[in-house]
Fold Histidine kinase.
Amino acid sequence: MMTVNQILSTKGKEVYSILSTNTVYEALTVMSEKNIGAILIIEDTVLKGVLSERDYARKIVLKSKSSKKAFVHEIMETDVVTVSPSDNLEYCMELMSTKRVRHLPVLENNIVIGIISISDVVKAIIEMQKDTIQHLNSYITQ
């Protein structure tokens, strides 16, 4: 089974982060510029939380608040579900499903070294299935 580290080696380990004192609008601007659905809140190398488009929709838009006046710390998720580089994709899928999250920060020695999304996991599983099918096809046609 493929591991988180293998996904990171393919996709890269770039992580975008902001501070909890940024406004939600500033966070959304970075998310839009980087074309990402969630951003990490990291302060002094410590993961403090995560802010997703879902948080914005549910905690700002639906409550008629202003993203230019609200701060990230007011709506960010602080109970962050994380994984390690050695975790396998089956475990990640289970976490994403049971915890209802779409992004998993990757921590090594309590330092964020990457982030994977549900899309990354699905793509990796599809590639593994393609390889398996190709292997089986070559086995059958021999």
In short: Residues 3 and 88 are 4 Å apart (CA to CA).
